[in-house]
Amino acid sequence: MKRHSKRYKELLKSIVKDKKIELNEIIDLVKKNSTTKFDESIDVSLRINLKQSKGGDLSLRTVVKLPNGSGKKNKIAVLCETDKIEEAKKSGAEVVGSDDLIEKISQGKFDFTKLICTPAMMGKIGKHGKVLGPKGLMPNPKLGTVTNDIVKAVKDIKTGLVEIRNDKDGNLASTIGRKSFSSEKLLENYKHFIDSIKKEKPSTIKGEFIKNIFITSTMGISYRVRGK
Question: Tens-digit pLDDT profile for the chain (228 aa)?
Fold first, then answer.
């Protein structure tokens, strides 16, 4: 028989049943339930309608720039030509390289969480896509990680650019901040995130695009957002 911790049992007491609660109340509850010692991530999970009236199911992959940042610490690597290495180092990237970085990648050494690549180097990194892709590290122009503007790309990631991608069932999730964020900042990030997703709805999808939304924290319980 599975046993739950005292902390978990206490959290269960804050579950709200059969009662509509406002968005700001949900955020306050999620923050209140973030009782661990570390700075828990505040996350939004939602399910979108994938069924298009024409063609196959929708596959949504994009980026959203949160107005107050995500609070997530990324270790950024930049793959570029040798004459851009100094620029990349000054951008704030933690890992910078050219052919030497490709060699490390070929050896399975991934000492970073995000990879930015200049267009000129994409031909060399392409053959490693089967390894980088499943790890979510393959640079992509649509996500702003294939660019000659290294400084901007690094800054965007460090200041709150989050990647969005749905699974085959239409589920997608993202952080909207940390428990140390004020409720006002979390609310602003949430509204911006949802508005950004709504703008991605193609004309070939009829009816409601977002089916349901939940907000939770890393170690907390989730609350459903009513009235999307």
Answer: 455 565 555 555 555 554 578 899 999 999 998 888 999 999 999 999 988 877 778 889 899 999 999 998 899 999 999 999 999 999 999 999 999 999 999 998 888 999 999 999 999 998 899 899 888 899 999 899 999 999 999 999 998 899 898 998 999 999 999 999 999 999 999 999 999 999 999 888 888 999 999 999 998 888 999 866
d(CA 176, CA 189): 6
CA distance 141 to 119: 9
**Phi-psi label, residue 158: left if phi above 0, alpha if psi -120 to 50, beta otherwise:** alpha
Q: What are the extents of the domains in the chain?
A: 20-70+161-224, 76-158
Q: Is CATH 3.40.50.790 what the domain over 76-158 is classified as, yes or no?
A: yes
- Nearest residue to 44 (alpha-carbon basis) of 187, 180, 156: 187
Place of tokens 């409720």: 183
For domain 20-70+161-224, which CATH number applies: 3.40.50.300, 3.20.20.150, 3.30.190.20, 2.60.120.260? 3.30.190.20
Q: CA nearest 131: which of 104, 170, 152?
A: 104
**Token output for 69:** 């940042």
Q: Which of 223, 225, 224, 216 is nearest to 34 (CA)?
A: 216
